[in-house]
Amino acid sequence: MFQFGFNMFHEITRPFNMNYRCYSVSMLPGNERQDVERGGKIIMPPSALEMLTRLSIEYPMIFKLTNRKTNRITHCGVLEFVADEGKVYLPHWMMANLVLEEGTVVQIESVSLPVATFSKFQPLSEDFLDITNPKAVLENCLRNFSCLTTGDVIAIKYNSKVYELCVLETKPGNAVIIIECDMNVEFAPPVGYKEEEHIPKNAGGSSGVSMDEDPAAIMPEPSGFVAFSGEGNRLDGKKKKLTSESESESQSSQARQSYVRGIPDYEWTVGTLRFIRNSRPPSAKEEIPTEPFEAFKGEGFTLRTAKSKN
Q: What residues are paired with 155 via a beta bridge?
């Protein structure tokens, strides 16, 4: 005998497929819901929750929205089940992607998507370049999204300003789930952005200026009155000593041998008389050798005076 249990066959998961009239979040009764506008989730009626629990669908709940008139599709998550029966409330950017108007019928179907590994975005405005760390800003804003669809234009808000980004590419599929995943993000140049053309500077060329060249040499000569441009004159009428002459004299004086007391001049010739003077006082570093003082050690001399006629 064969015994069959009740759990022998796996339960067949039936998809959720319903049609609702869609409205923007601004039409939702009650207080303004900015949290819905900043993300990629919709608000559905309570009856949808009861039907989803009976169908035993996979979590997290991901839905495919289809506009049958234009065949435009996108994917989203669900935020709450508090909408009026027969109505769903969508963010404005999502209605723009699906080309939907207020009260238009939209088809909502439950789907299962692969986990994202890569995505590429293109800002639609050059103002996005003013953000210091765009990847960190995007990562923070994508926490309000459940999935991404290639070709959608999502809207994120940062510093009280709304930025629109086009989803150029997603991997491993055209629609991916971004909940609890490691996803690599890249940015394409914004729409209308033109990179500046940099002209390389040729060092040593006619059009470029080398870095070693003195900037004063390439400045134009001053025209008109120029202060302190003449030559100076001495008040006593003598010629001013040029710098080159003073340098030559200092070099010649250094070339001369300094006179040392007690050593004869071996280059002396007959008929020459040389007076040796100290051109400069001895410095503190130069020590002049001195002999100890002894009384009456010097040589004597005779004092002669003229005789008087008396």
A: 164
Condensed to tens digits (0 to 9), the pLDDT of residues 53-66 reads 888 788 889 999 99
Rounded Cα distance between 106 and 98, Å, is 9
Q: Which long-range contacts (CB under 8 A, 24 or more apart) does 192-199 make?
A: 192/126, 193/126, 193/129
Sole residue written with tokens 């280059």: 267
Amino acid at site 182:
D
CB of 167 within 8 A of CB of 175? no
Instruction: Give the dihedral sign, CA 81/82/87/92.
Output: negative
What are the pLDDT digits (tens) for 247-291?
555 555 555 556 666 677 777 788 787 766 655 555 555 555 566
CB 62 within 8 A of CB 177: yes
Any idea which residue has 């009740």 for tokens?
6
How many Å apart are CA 47 and CA 81, to the nearest integer?
8
